[in-house]
Every structure is written in structure tokens, then in C-alpha cells.
């Protein structure tokens, strides 16, 4: 039996949301690690080598997630790691973001609006994770 579990790093300062995401992902046989700040998340991305990163936009600052995404993409070790960006920015600011707007400006693979739909999350994770042989 294959015991491999893809590793997902969640970077979000909302502990309750992290736990909901953890339960959802662990029920689908993913290993979950988490960080509550962009800096800690960036450091964990370097040391833990996750298969995928779920990243909140607004943490300590309104755009901390964007800065973290830039750092992850700038590092040769993590630049190819898929990033799903969670955002309530549309609700809270009226700004709309799309991964197709400007790839250089928003270096992420997908956006998911909060509140997170568990089925959409799992579908998006599966789409971005290439099965490891």
C-alpha cells in the first residue's frame, strides 16, 4: 500500500479556518503543515518542501500574501510550487483579482474566495497536484 501523502502548506492567520482546511485536506489523505505569518510560511516552504501552498492575502497587512507569493516565486527551490491564494479581498475592499489579469503581478496558480467551499478546494488541489509516480 502506498503511504505517500502530498504535503500542503497553509499560510493563514485565521486559526479556525486553518483547522477547517486541515480537516478537509487530511480527510482526502493530504499531509498539512501551517504557518500564521507570511515570513514563517516562506521559511517553512524552504525547509518542508511542500507539494502545494494555500496562501491567504490579508494577514498582518492587507497584502502580506502577495509579498509572500513573490518571495516564494523568487526562490529557485520553491518557484514551481503551485500556490492557491485564498482571499476575502473582494468582500472587504471591492478589488477583484484573477490569475489571468497579470501573471507577473499576481504570481499564483488559482484564487479561491472566502468562505472556502470544501469541494472547490479539493477539486482545485487535485487539479494542481501532479501525481507522483
Domain unit count: 1
What general outline do the C-alpha atoms trace? globular
The strand line-up of the biggest sheet is: 2-1-3-4-5
The CATH architecture classification is 3-Layer(aba) Sandwich
Structural class computed from helices and strand pairing: alpha/beta
Question: Helix share of residues?
Answer: 25-40%
- Give the percentage of residues in beta strands: 15-25%
Q: What's the end-to-end separation, in Å?
A: 13 Å
Count, helices: 5
Molecular structure report:
The protein is built from five helices and five strands; from the N terminus they run βαβαβαβαβα. The chain is globular, with a radius of gyration of 14 Å. By secondary structure, it is of the alpha/beta class. The protein has a single domain (7-128), classed as Response regulator (Rossmann fold), CATH 3.40.50. Helix 2 packs parallel to helix 3. Strand 4, helix 4 (89-93) and strand 5 (110-113) form a beta-alpha-beta unit. The protein has a five-stranded parallel sheet, with helices on both faces.
